[in-house]
UniProtKB/TrEMBL annotation:
Keywords: ATP-binding, Nucleotide-binding, Transport. The keyword Cell membrane does not apply. It comes from Curtobacterium luteum. InterPro entries: AAA+_ATPase (IPR003593), ABC_transporter-like_ATP-bd (IPR003439), ABC_transporter-like_CS (IPR017871), ABC_transpr_LolD-like (IPR015854), MacB-like_ATP-bd (IPR017911), P-loop_NTPase (IPR027417). Coiled coil: none annotated. This is ABC transporter ATP-binding protein. GO terms for cellular component: membrane protein complex; plasma membrane. One of its GO terms (molecular function) is transmembrane transporter activity. Residues 4-236 form the ABC transporter domain. PANTHER family: ABC TRANSPORTER ABCH.1, IMPORT ATP-BINDING PROTEIN. The keyword Transferase does not apply.
Length: 237
């Protein structure tokens, strides 16, 4: 079953075509790398999948809902229910503890304060930070801060986790650890899309979607999995 379906999605900014007819299906429980160079359209696609922007034309369905028919308040509710975001830069509140930062992910979900705290601690435990719940961001390493950001993204138990260059600001060891967290979340049932220009990271994931010039150039789910994985791995060397 497709949890995410794009059909002929076009996004233009003036005369610039950021997306030029993208069709993509992601099944419930997949772990997918969307890879491509700067300007390939992958970040624009992330914003559209995350309902932060609307396509110029084409359709987007998330968990069976036609996003194009929704009002802004309905989109906000859909984001709160179905979508979690992780970015390259952690965007943590410097004066708030790890638990408080994670609890912020439930501000728009009509959850009581005491319940937000409990669920925040549970989310931090899921990413291996149960012993850091009361630490401030400046008391955490870069890798730990990204784990807090991931906990904030999953505290609402989203259907889809969108991770935009989640290891881009980290050293190799911390990046490897973050990727393992994403794999564990996926194994527990969360659909994960990792948007990256890191070819080595992309080649390590089960499915690779390669974008170029606003189009899906190759998709390993389309029968060319070995060829695409080898090409991406070769490009990483």
């Amino acid at each position: 079953m497709s949890v995410l379906a794009l059909r002929d999605v076009v996004k233009t900014y003036g005369d610039v075509g950021a997306l030029r007819g993208v069709t993509l299906d992601v099944a419930d429980g997949e772990l997918v790398a969307v890879v491509g160079p700067s300007g390939s359209g992958k970040s624009t696609m992330l914003n559209i999948i995350g309902t932060l922007d609307r396509p110029t034309s084409g359709t987007l369905h998330i968990a069976g809902d036609d996003v194009g028919t929704m009002r802004d308040d309905e989109l906000s509710a859909l984001r709160a229910l179905h979508i979690g975001f992780v970015f390259q830069h952690f965007h943590l509140q410097p004066g708030a503890t790890a638990a408080e930062n994670v609890a912020d992910g439930l501000l728009y979900a009509d959850v009581a304060r005491r319940v937000r705290r409990r669920r925040a601690v549970e989310a931090l435990e899921r990413v291996g930070l149960g012993h850091r719940v009361d630490h401030l961001p400046n008391q955490l390493s870069g890798g730990e801060q990204q784990r807090v950001a991931i906990a904030r993204a999953i505290v609402g138990d989203p259907t889809i986790l969108l991770a935009d260059e989640p290891t881009g600001a980290l050293d190799t060891a911390s990046g490897t650890a973050i990727l393992e967290v994403l794999r564990e979340l996926n194994s527990a049932g969360t659909t994960v899309l990792v948007i990256t220009h890191d070819l080595e990271l992309a080649a390590s994931l089960p499915r690779q979607v390669r974008m170029r010039d606003g189009l899906v150039e190759q998709d390993s789910a389309g029968g060319d999995a070995a060829e695409l994985a080898a090409a991406i791995a070769g490009g990483a060397r």
